Amino acid sequence: MSLDPPSPPPRRARSYKTRRVSRRLSLSSAHARLLPQTEMRVMARTFREQLFFLVLSACVLKGDSRHIENNEISKDEFFSFFDSELKRETPEEFMYRRPLRCLDMVAVEGRFSFAADSPQLRCAAFLVAEPDQLITVELERVHIDCSAGDFVTVFDGWVKKGEKFPSSQDHPLAAYERYVDYCDSPKRSVRSSQNVAMVFFRLHAAGSGFALTVRKHANPFPCNVISQATEGSYTMVIPQERRNCSFSIIYPVEIDVSEFSLGHDNGHPRSSTPGCAESGDFVQLLGGSGIDTSKLLPVTDLCASFSGPTRVKVGCDNAVVRMVSSGRFVSRVSFSYRLLQRPELQSIKLNNVEDFCFNN
């Protein structure tokens, strides 16, 4: 299949802040004999399967920059790649330096290098950190031919099939500012605004290559998170600032919202209705199959402060807790989530009023 020539990337991006999530999985006894199980940081299989839809479903990166299309990689090859990550991304002290693959996932700090032994035209590395971390990417030893169409571009967030996370509504930068291209920008260090970032690149000649260093930094007020975990609890706070924040869980889950506070007791009863936008301060539970929260459909809205459980099952590829703040209050939402089991997913197919997913 022919590829459209890459369009020139947008100009500059400012640097902001972000953070990370790690997973520990048990390995086979053979692997366990090599490395202590307590030191093994690995991604959950389910998360790796969900990331298959991120990387493979691509005509990956349509958007406002040079993009990658038609990644020629099979499902088995993709899972094989992540199986190798069980070995390659275990203890961080052993994985500080390693080569990048054309399609890669990086969940640890370190120095990563890529050297092309043949033309590599559709490559991307997805970077992820803990929820309360930001990611800094520093480009080094870049040997590419910009005039021949080579590029190395850092994106502040993730892109999949033209959809961006965070969405344009929820990110502090304009879309074109979220791309930093090595050929067009003097910047060699880029800090993300959330716990995910990505690097995509195209190299036409063997011998071309680059290195990048990934570092992570504490983020006191995380906003816009992609979770690697299948279960957990989280508190999202917006400190009197007009902005939107989302927590994206790329599995079908049950979400239990235990507290929603606007920083004052307004005496109103809890509100859980299809529409709360008029209030200016509310929490949405969203569901769908994409990563752009503005394109997901609402499961329910919460408008008024309350404490006490509100449980909703969202049997979707992506379940999101999104908080919208007018900036008048210190907004806070606390929730927990867990992976839905197979019998629960089967019951969702029966169109229970509360348990559903939007397959648009």
From TrEMBL:
It comes from the Eukaryota. Disulfide bonds join C102-C123, C146-C183, C223-C245, C276-C303, C316-C357. It holds the Pfam family CRF-BP_C. Residues 225-346 form the Corticotropin-releasing factor binding protein C-terminal domain. GO terms for cellular component: extracellular space. Its main location: secreted. Residues 94-217 form the Corticotropin-releasing factor binding protein N-terminal domain. GO terms for biological process: hormone-mediated signaling pathway; negative regulation of corticotropin secretion. InterPro entries: CRF-bd (IPR008435), CRF-BP_C (IPR056178), CRF-BP_N (IPR056177), Sperma_CUB_dom_sf (IPR035914). Keywords: Disulfide bond, Glycoprotein, Secreted, Signal. It is found in: Secreted. One of its GO terms (molecular function) is corticotropin-releasing hormone binding. Gene3D superfamilies: Spermadhesin, CUB domain (2.60.120.290). Belongs to the CRF-binding protein family. Binds CRF and inactivates it. May prevent inappropriate pituitary-adrenal stimulation in pregnancy. This is Corticotropin-releasing factor-binding protein.
